[in-house]
């Protein structure tokens, strides 16, 4: 049952094409370029879509998986949901093919290295990079959990670090057997027969975090029985990690799943608070910069041979990646190859769409800086390292956003989480809150100054100015906090900006840190009411990552609240220029 045509499908998917078979059949419509690796689940091949020329990774599943009816039934549902999910921390799944010749998963090809290979080559990452790994992992898990999918086998081999230091999760649900997963990362309750759960994914993510901090896993054992006992009964070795991070380790590795964070989003908020308190508001940019350096150094190394890989596994903890649930021997080795430098970026689909006119959303003008000056027609250049003029950056962002107009986004602010698509001032999002009654994500559409929320089978319009409670209020707050106009205003009014990463000739995207007085920003379109509420804090400190053309990718700004605690607003943007249609609901 092919799953072509979903939102994640690369443009121009073909149904025919060259069948240059590499040790087996070739998915129709693709041409193989090279084999990347093999493992317990199957072989992985770098291929090119014959029509769109998009590079992809295709995993051909082994025959034993094709004969596992329970696995296939579950994975079909997981793949259907994943194909509709777009998130900057999740590798896109384009298609799940089930044909007479076999089954295959077609997915995005990421330029970067696997965390497994990076740890084997360079050891512990240091606290800032480890926090970046955990933060990106939790954001990715929050996205897939909200879609009703579990990872089931999270470990460093399934975490990719791309060329900009971003964390990308892959291989969701590809773990047959009960309990599924890799023994070194398996939560205590799974050893006792409990079903997989979100709490189990959070436990595995924390094991990975510990491994990044220390260079080894928290629990060891000569065999699965000894390892199970260590996970279920062994004391959590918090003394081996930096003091400010011990609470994160204790909560994530709690023996009782009820004692772990309630969700990946909750865990991410706790991480943000701990990281900012210990390392300052620029912790994420600094951690990502460190990951960029480590990934580049790892990619430059020759791929490890199997003996070196097994030795690295043993040095980090409990021997090779043993599995439970019916699989024998080591788990998939292919992510080591997928992380090699031979990979090309397959995220080009985000730039392959051209916007033509309105997509049914806001017909208002594109964003512009709050000052009277308009953006220059010429394409601006990236400022040199050191002090940067905020007005120049604001014009650069305005020019870039005016050309692309639409994007997917993920926003997190105090008490609110949202993800979806935007086109200038129009938003189509799912939104949830910190209160128990609002934790289940709900869909909302914002057009101009009206929020539409679904009540039963009907849509209810609520003016933004009156949207103060429940889901309408959450959507209004996400609109304010995630607005590109707010990003432009922060840059335009900034009194101090420094470029801290991605200077000319350096790897990674440009990253800017600065401060902005909030007084006077109340008139900013869309974000103005938020800035008015925050004005009593005096100023906001921010970290903004742009791509080389000026498109915002990651934005974080923080203020000190009335209670003396930091209030942080974070937005990730991706897929700029992708076609988006946001219309008034009927």
Automatic annotation (TrEMBL):
Residues 1-26, 300-331, 357-387 are annotated as: Disordered. Pfam families: Pkinase. GO terms for molecular function: ATP binding; protein serine/threonine kinase activity. The keyword Flavoprotein does not apply. PROSITE patterns: PROTEIN_KINASE_DOM. Residues 30-272 form the Protein kinase domain. Its EC number is 2.7.11.1. InterPro entries: Kinase-like_dom_sf (IPR011009), Prot_kinase_dom (IPR000719). Residues 373-387 have a biased composition (Low complexity). This is non-specific serine/threonine protein kinase.
């Amino acid at each position: 049952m092919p799953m072509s045509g979903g939102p994640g499908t690369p443009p121009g998917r073909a149904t025919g094409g060259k069948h240059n078979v590499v040790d087996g059949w070739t998915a129709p419509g693709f041409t193989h370029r090279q084999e990347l690796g093999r493992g317990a689940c199957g072989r992985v091949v770098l291929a090119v879509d014959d029509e769109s020329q998009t590079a992809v990774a295709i995993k051909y599943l082994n025959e034993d998986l094709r004969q596992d009816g329970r696995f296939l039934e579950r994975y079909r549902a997981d793949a259907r949901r994943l194909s509709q999910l777009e998130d900057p921390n999740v590798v896109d799944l384009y298609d799940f093919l089930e044909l007479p010749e076999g089954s295959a998963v077609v997915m995005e090809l990421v330029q970067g290295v696997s965390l497994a290979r990076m740890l084997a080559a360079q050891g512990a990452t240091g606290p800032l990079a480890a926090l970046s790994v955990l933060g990106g992992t939790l954001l990715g898990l929050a996205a897939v959990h909200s879609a009703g999918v579990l990872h089931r086998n999270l470990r460093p081999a399934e975490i990719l670090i791309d060329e900009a230091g971003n964390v990308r999760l892959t291989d969701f649900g590809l773990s047959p057997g009960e309990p599924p997963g890799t023994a070194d990362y398996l939560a205590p309750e799974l050893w006792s027969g409990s079903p997989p759960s979100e709490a189990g994914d959070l436990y595995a993510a924390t094991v990975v975090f510990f491994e990044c901090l220390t260079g080894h896993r928290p629990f060891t054992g000569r065999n699965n029985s000894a390892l199970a006992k260590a996970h279920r009964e062994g004391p959590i070795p918090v003394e081996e990690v930096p003091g400010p991070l011990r609470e994160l380790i204790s909560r994530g590795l709690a023996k009782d799943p009820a004692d772990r964070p309630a969700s990946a989003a909750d865990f991410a908020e706790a991480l943000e608070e701990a990281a900012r308190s210990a390392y300052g508001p620029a912790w994420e940019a600094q951690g990502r910069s460190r990951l960029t350096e480590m990934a580049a150094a790892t990619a430059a190394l020759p791929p490890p041979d199997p003996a070196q890989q097994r030795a690295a596994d043993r040095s980090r903890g409990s021997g090779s990646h043993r599995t439970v649930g019916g699989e024998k021997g080591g788990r998939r080795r292919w992510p080591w190859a997928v992380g090699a430098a031979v990979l090309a970026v397959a995220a080009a689909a985000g730039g392959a769409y051209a916007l033509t006119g309105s997509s049914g959303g806001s017909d208002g003008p594109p964003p512009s800086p709050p000052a009277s000056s308009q953006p220059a027609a010429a394409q601006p250049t990236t400022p040199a390292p050191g002090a940067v003029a905020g007005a120049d950056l604001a014009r650069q962002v305005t020019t870039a956003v005016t050309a692309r107009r639409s994007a997917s986004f993920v926003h997190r602010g105090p008490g609110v989480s949202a993800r979806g698509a935007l086109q200038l001032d129009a938003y189509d999002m799912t939104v949830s809150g910190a209160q128990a009654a609002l934790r289940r994500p709900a869909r909302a559409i914002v057009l101009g100054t009206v929020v539409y929320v679904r009540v039963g089978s009907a849509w209810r319009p609520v003016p933004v100015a009156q949207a103060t409670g429940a889901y309408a209020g959450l959507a209004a707050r996400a609109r304010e906090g995630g607005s590109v106009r707010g990003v432009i205003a922060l840059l335009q009014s900034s009194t101090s900006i420094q470029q801290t990463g991605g200077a000319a000739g350096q790897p990674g995207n440009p990253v800017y840190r600065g401060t902005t007085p909030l007084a006077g920003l109340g008139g900013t379109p869309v974000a103005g009411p938020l800035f008015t509420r925050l004005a009593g804090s005096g100023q906001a400190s921010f970290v903004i990552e742009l791509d080389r053309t000026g498109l915002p990718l990651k934005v974080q700004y923080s203020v000190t609240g009335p209670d003396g605690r930091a209030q942080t607003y974070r937005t990730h943007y991706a897929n700029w220029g992708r076609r988006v249609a946001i219309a008034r609901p009927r």
